[in-house]
Amino acid sequence: YYEACTNKYDAFVREKYQGTLPYILVSPANKLAFVFSKVMLNLFKILVNVILSLLIGFVFFDITFRGSILLIVFSLLLIFVTFSGVGLIISSLGAWREGIVNISFVLGSILYLISGVYYPIEIFPVSWQKIFALLPTTQSINLLREITINNASLFNVLPILIYLLVFGLIFIVLGIFVFKKLEQKISMLGI
Fold this sequence. Notes:
The protein has helices spanning 2-6, 9-18, 21-26, 31-60, 69-96, 99-114, 126-132, 136-148, 154-189. The chain is globular, with a radius of gyration of 18 Å. By secondary structure, the chain is mainly α.
């Protein structure tokens, strides 16, 4: 989900390389709708991938699922919203400077390492664990683990859901602000 939401930088970077970015910026079309339509395609691809992976796991590997499917779907949509703001910031900055895209790859890889995707955060020093536990990726992983493995109810995971919602709203507002500022700057510079 992190990848689907943050890969929306591709929306403006590709348009910049193809030379169509100035046309998009001066068109009466809603630019934010353009970006979010690109990410919705990525979201659909990720959902199909997740569903197929789960089906293969259920059929061939006898994987059991203990949690609420409705809560999982809601959680995945909330995680999508949470990372959409980050993706909007990367997209906006990517339209302005190409190097931002490379930085997002590096930051994403580091984020995977320190948030419990590859290794549990318990292997890090205790002082770092407290910082890493605040990351939305760590909270997202903990949320999905609690629901799927521990059969947590909505009441049990409500603090994590609220945390992700607040984080997501802050970054969406920040992303829209950055997008509007950079849209003005790009339009003035003619990039």
